[in-house]
Amino acid sequence: MDRSDTAKKSDSAADGGERIAKRLARAGLCSRRDAERWIAEGRVSVNSRVLDSPACVVHPGDIVQVDGKVVPEPEPSRLWRYHKPSGLVTTARDEKGRETVFDRLPEDLPRVVSIGRLDLTTEGLLLLTNDGELARFLELPATGWTRRYRVRVFGEVDEAQLAGLAKGPTIEGVKYGPIEAVLDRVQGRNAWLTVSLKEGKNREIRKVMEALGLQVNRLIRVAYGPFQLGKLEEGAVEEVPKRVVREQIAPFFTAQEPAEPAESATKQRAKARADSEKASSARAGAAGAPAKAPMKAAAKPETKRPPRTAAKRHEAEAARKGEDAAPARRSTLSLSAKAGGKPAAAKPATKSARKPGEAGPKPQGKPAGKPVGKPSGTMSAKPGPKPGPKSIDGAGPRGGRGGKPDGSKAGPAATGGAKPGAKAGGRTERPRADRRR
């Protein structure tokens, strides 16, 4: 393979590609170190070109082959819990030909790698994954995950010595990290301990207990970080839900996901405007109804719109004038009634004076009551002489008003005799109906 071409691919690692060793590790074939060794041996090829250097970047769509077999595209990261029984080796291939944990796995399980290792006689929880990069991430002590074990030891347990392990013991020149050991119970010469540590060096618990004069005869791992062994039966495999995996190992997936592109200035302004509107509406809602009361008080009073047509305007104006003139008319009538004057309703000025001997107009109706006083003359059934000329107000000829003694007709009250309410002076009295008006 051309080295210049390899250098160009190495420079394009930021374009969404990944190094070939990482691709092989993610596929679960080997570790990165083993991938580099395979490349040096000429076992790895990309797009039918055999690689001679691990400085190669592959992109989606490139065909990667190991020993002539195509390496599939990496699948989404998955995680399984496995209850390892005692007597199995945690390795893909054993030089001595012993049985491994991968020989006991179900056939429908994809190619997986183990996260950490357990000794031949150690049993308990073993995590498996199809992502070699995830396995490497969880194995590092920098992850800070605690491994918890149940340990059965033979010998006399000194709790003071167990408490001293929290400082980090040094055994045979090897410095170990802090170890938390608690005595649970004692059964004869045996005792059960709970041991928690964060490193997990090779045979660490067995070597530390031997330094305390205790012999480990059973070792069970019950937890690895947030994942517990629980009631998983020996030899059983159970996949961890993907949601739980992403929640518990969020730093790993966050580092792999590309950064989101920055928002444009227009989107930022729109977002700020929407936030300000929400804040103002929230303040208005908190203030409640009293904040809206001043607006209602400041509203202009409604005014009636004038009629549009001329007829409507004339009717409205006439009604308004009638309302204004009605009280004045009533007061005029009352004053004239008190003074005994003539009612203002009659307008004889508009009519011409009657000729002598002409009968006056007939009354509109009968008087509403008895006259107030006696008339000065006597009523006569015989027709009298024709009346002489009269004035406009209905007075008879000189010699008296209200009719002659012979009962001749005179004035407007000829049909009903003398006008009721006539006084001795010759002035007629108005009926009660007229006074009411």
From TrEMBL:
SUPFAM superfamilies: Alpha-L RNA-binding motif (SSF55174), Pseudouridine synthase (SSF55120). Residues 281-298, 336-351, 358-377, 408-422 have a biased composition (Low complexity). The keyword RNA-binding applies. It catalyses: a uridine in RNA = a pseudouridine in RNA. GO terms for molecular function: 23S rRNA pseudouridine(2605) synthase activity. Residues 312-327, 426-437 have a biased composition (Basic and acidic residues). Pfam families: PseudoU_synth_2, S4. Its EC number is 5.4.99.-. It is an enzyme of class 5 (isomerase). Residues 255-437 are annotated as: Disordered. Residues 18-76 form the RNA-binding S4 domain. InterPro entries: PsdUridine_s_RsuA/RluB/E/F_cat, PsdUridine_synth_cat_dom_sf, PsdUridine_synth_RsuA/RluA, PsdUridine_synth_RsuA/RluB/E/F, PsdUridine_synth_RsuA/RluB_CS, RsuA_PseudoU_synthase, S4_RNA-bd, S4_RNA-bd_sf. Keywords: Isomerase, RNA-binding. Belongs to the pseudouridine synthase RsuA family. This is Pseudouridine synthase. It comes from Azospirillum picis.
